[in-house]
């Protein structure tokens, strides 16, 4: 079946530091890949997505590239802010039922 | 962007009572809605897929008689936790896939926190 593996957190960074959250996946066929963000006490918000190999999703300074050869979709941001503190979920959608499979989430804490 | 709402946002109930959670797509029609459960510090677990006008499809290990799902219209799905017990306390999140939009995009509601005493 499909699965998503992402780095365990929490990740603590100073403001303006570079962020990388690793994500790898296992899936049959050609899934679509997503990053969702969950702020404290809230639901999930779509951060960015990529639907085919070599696509780069980007939003709010975050970006991730769909790498089929390494089955990865790592999330990066060049300069994080305190407001980026949240839990980030890597996810994929594939299969006939279009179900979304989530990773376990990585908590990011950015300190001033 | 598309908006999905959930009501209530938080509910506290006594053990043995039933609780209904509503999920609405506010500005689009959703043929399919999904119900997830999130445990503290864990990822989302898909409970069931709700299709408008038909029975929901439950994931393995999810009791359909315990978690009743009704998708009565293209903008509303409800999850009823019947005879709730403390172990049902959790964060329940719904998502909706727009009928006419890109099939790969789901929009998530803000979640409902259920506490069963």
Structure description:
The complex is a heterodimer of chains A (112) and B (117). Chain A has 112 residues and is mainly β. Helix content of chain A is 0%, strand content 53%. With 117 residues, chain B is mostly beta strands. In chain B, strands 2, 4, 5, 6, 9, 10 and 11 form a seven-stranded mixed sheet that branches. Chain B has strands at 4-7, 10-13, 19-25, 30-38, 44-51, 57-58, 67-73, 76-81, 90-98, 106-108, 112-116. Helix content of chain B is 0%, strand content 55%. The radius of gyration of chain B is 13 Å and the shape is globular. The chains are: A mainly beta (112), B mainly beta (117).
The tally of beta strands of chain A, per DSSP, is: 12
| Broad structural category of chain B | mainly beta
How many strands of chain B? Answer: 11
Pair with the most extensive interface?
A-B, 19 and 22 residues
Gyration radius of chain A, in Å: 13 Å
The DSSP helix count of chain B reads: 0
Mean pLDDT of chain B: 89
> Topology as H/E string of chain A?
EEEEEEEEEEEE
**Assembly form of the protein:** heterodimer
Shape of chain B: globular
Strand content of chain A: over 45%
Q: Using only CA atoms, what is the Rg of chain B?
A: 13 Å
Largest sheet of chain B: 7 strands, mixed
> Helix coverage percent of residues of chain A?
under 10%
Q: Uncertain segments of chain B of ≥5 residues (pLDDT<50)?
A: none
Mean pLDDT of chain A: 92
Percent of residues in β-strands of chain B: over 45%
Number of helices of chain A: 0
* Percent helix range of chain B: under 10%
Outline of this structure?
By secondary structure, chain A is mostly beta strands. Chain A has strands at residues 3-6, 11-14, 19-21, 23-26, 32-38, 44-50, 56-59, 62-65, 75-77, 86-94, 99-102, 106-111.
């Amino acid at each position: 079946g499909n699965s998503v593996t992402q780095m365990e957190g929490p990740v603590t960074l100073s403001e303006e530091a570079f962020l990388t959250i690793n994500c790898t996946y296992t899936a049959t066929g050609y899934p679509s890949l997503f990053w969702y963000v969950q702020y404290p006490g809230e639901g999930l918000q779509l951060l960015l997505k990529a639907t085919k190999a070599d696509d780069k999703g980007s939003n709010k300074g975050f970006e991730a590239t769909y790498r089929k050869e390494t089955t990865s979709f790592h999330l990066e941001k060049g300069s994080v802010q305190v407001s980026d503190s949240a839990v980030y979920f890597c996810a994929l959608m594939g299969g006939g039922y279009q179900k979304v499979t989530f990773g376990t989430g990585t908590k990011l804490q950015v300190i001033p | 962007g598309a908006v999905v709402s959930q009501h209530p946002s938080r509910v506290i109930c006594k053990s043995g009572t039933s609780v209904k959670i509503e999920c609405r797509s506010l500005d689009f029609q959703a043929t399919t809605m999904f119900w997830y459960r999130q445990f503290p510090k864990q990822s989302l677990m898909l409970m069931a897929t709700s299709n408008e006008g038909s029975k929901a499809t439950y994931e393995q290990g999810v009791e359909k008689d315990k978690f009743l799902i009704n998708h009565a219209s293209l903008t509303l799905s409800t999850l009823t936790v019947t005879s709730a017990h403390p172990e049902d306390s959790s964060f329940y999140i719904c998502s909706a896939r727009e009928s006419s939009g890109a099939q790969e995009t789901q929009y998530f509601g803000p979640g409902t926190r259920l506490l069963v005493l």
